[in-house]
Structures are given as C-alpha cells and as structure tokens.
Amino acid sequence: MRRFDWLLIIILIVGAVGGKFADFGAGVPKSENPRRPSPENFEPKAWDDETQAWMSQTPESRRNEIPGGAPLPDIGIIDGDNKRQSSTGSAFSISTKGFWLTARHVAEGCDTTFLQIGKRKGLKVTRTILHPNADVALLVTQNAPPGLPIRDFQGRRRDDAFNVGFPKGQPGAVHARYIGEMTMRHRGRMGFRERVNVWTEKSRIPSRFGSLGGLSGGAVLDDTGRIIGVVEAESRRRGRIMTAKTETLREILARADARNGNQAVASGPLGADDYPTTARRLITTLRVAKVICRVNRLS
Questions:
Q1: Is the pTM of the predicted complex or chain greater than 0.85?
Q2: In what order do the strands lie in the sheet with 137-140?
Q3: Vertex 267, ends 265 and 272: CA angle to 5°?
Q4: Would you say 286 and 115 are in contact if contact means Cβ atoms under 8 Å apart?
Q5: For the segment 258-282, what is each residue's pLDDT rounded down to a tens digit?
Q6: Which residue, among 223, 219, 227, has the nearest Cα to 250 in the 3D structure?
Q7: Burial class (CB in 10 A: 0-12, 13-18, 19+), 124
Q8: Which domains does the chain have, with CATH numbers?
C-alpha cells in the first residue's frame, strides 16, 4: 500500500476518534447544588396530570434503606452555594393577601421570581424578604389562594410531619417523624446559624426521586393540616430532613409586617397512608407552588 494511502487512513481514524470525544458530555447538564435544581432540567407538565399519576401509587416506605440509631450532632453544617444560577424550589401560601413562605436559599439572588403551576407562570413575585439569621424567606405577590395556618410545634418525639413541594422540580410529598432539634450552620454566602427541627423519613410519593433537592421551601404540615415549618435541607445518607422552627416563621412574618390571616384554612387531616390525597389537592389548587428563580446570564 502506498504511503499516501496509509496517511489517508490515519487521518480518517484520528478524525473519527476526535469527533467522538468532542461530542462526549455535550448533552449532560452542569452539576448544580442539589438543594436548588436548575429549571432547565425539567420539562413543564400539567401538575394535575402529573399528580394524578402518582395518586394511584402506594407511599414507598424508606425504613429499610435508612440507618437508624445514630445520635443527632450538636451542630450540622450546610455549604452555601456561592454561584448565582437559575433554580427551582417550593413555596406555600399563608394569606390571600399574597404572602408565601419559602426557604431563603430558594429566593435569594434571583433577578426574577415567580410561582408556577403547570405550563403557566402564575404569579410574579413583587417583593422578597429574607430572614437575616435563618434559611427562611417571605415572598409577596398581588394575591394568593387561601393560606395555610401556622401552628406552634412543641417538638414531641415521634410526632409526624408531611412535607409537600416539588422535589427535582416535580410534585411530591414525604412522610417524616420527629427525632429532635439541632443547630445548623450555613457556610458560604449566607453564613449564619439557626436552630432547626430534624425528622427521619418514613415514606415518600412518588418513589422515583433520590435527592429531595427542590423540596426546599415546601410546606411542613402536622396531621391536622397546619404549618409547623419550612423544608430547608436534607441529609440523604441518613434519611433526615431539616426544617425551620415555627418561632422562625413568626420572626419573618413580624419582620415583614405580615399576618397569617383569619382566612387561613387547614388542609385537613393527613395520615401515613392517605397523605398523597391532601398533597395533590394542595398542589393542584396552587396553595403549594413551584418557585422559579431566574438569574440573568452574566457577560
């Protein structure tokens, strides 16, 4: 074979291999903070159709997957995300006057924030009030669906809670059991400490999601359907969920001069077997909504 033919074969092989590696990873989204999933990773769907699908499922128990018996540390550490990027989270109405509670890290650093249901943007957030020493924020819109009433939580062992929101940007709910409280230290941009309630996960619906990223800011309900906290963080390895204390919620309301409102109505009783029914109703009526945080691209 002539030297020219060998040279041509080598060029073709190098070109094919180089093209293969040039395309590798092109369709893989960038890694992001699991507490703040990117909205670009999720195709908007009609929540009514989405929630109808998992309404037929049975809540999946997590007890066999989660190690138990480990004591709570005095201080837990959460690394803040210093990079501004678009993300999603959860929020819930506390007043028809347009007041919503969410997690601070969901609402902080957004150029535009709105509450979405299905393919509609829904309500634009006109004002955001951040708690200075806790991972809690208040969103203000022109109006809102009937709010959920806040109830003081006494922190009794083995009390149940039901967390409703949008893990991984899709409708979902988690049944958890109270195990104590601890101090959570937020490192990075936020840089503060706060006392939080800690829960161990008992079951979830639907069963498809691993990390609960996106559930941040979601409603924490007691078995009467009243708010006892806001979802802030998770320890996936230990199957634990950290939520804001009701005292912290009272503080952000006072700071914003906002009230829970006499029109706030409990969602109704929740139990270990039937909480998906209430979760679906809260999501399809927009009392629990998906938060979209948009950050303008930096040049």
A1: no
A2: 120-124, 112-117, 288-294, 87-95, 99-102, 137-140, 127-130
A3: 155
A4: yes
A5: 887 667 888 888 999 899 999 999 9
A6: 227
A7: exposed
A8: 39-294 (2.40.10.120)
